[in-house]
Here is the input.
Amino acid sequence: DASTDNLNMIPFLALTGVTAFSDGKLSGAVSITDSLAHPLIAFKGTIRDLSVSTFRVPSIECDLAVDREKLSVDGVLRVSPQHEGAFHGTLPLVSAPFLYGLDRAKHVSFEVDLPEGDLAGLADATDIVADAAGRYSAQLMVTGSIVEPHLYGDLRMSGASFRLSGMEERYYGVDATVLLEDSLITISKLSAREGKKGTLDCAGRITLRGWRPATYDLTATADEFVLASLSNILANVSGTVKVATKTEGDRGVPVLS
Here is the structure.
């Protein structure tokens, strides 16, 4: 048994072949028993600043166990000091020469539920957003396998406003309903305002192949929507843009018309 305080978890994840995360620190109680190469592991404590790509989770309180065949975890995900949600799940493991790797063919189960909360904390979770306000909620459930996942959930925003990093425009009156059902993302509602008169409405569908977008069928309609952050461009946009799919090799890429 041991205790940790701000222990960098990235080198340990790399030993199991998990390289998606760029930062994360463990603080809590750790128990390691049985085999040194394939131990039974239990951890109870906090993961801070878990980061993947441009997103980070400031704090995760979790209870985690590894028993050679699976990793089981449940806890509380704190997106901001004022907003948190519960999660739990099981990931299948396969023995590696040292420790374990993810078994990409066996059943996976994971759920996270973020009830309605304040968007103000979003700026602390990603460098993409400079500041934000309004209300949002999100749910995600993953079943199937890592290779062939089945994804379900939704994302909802109401009365939201935000400004993207490095941009002048502030979008407000943002209302959105995005549904995820197996391999289909449905944007049933996405509307926003910008400036005194600018409006934007978007709806459509994106199909997934595994974890990646495969086809696009989206329509966006703008009316006096100002774009001032593109290099050397000041544009007042009105009209309709459609996003379809062009196949390049074994993947689909979005095409605008």
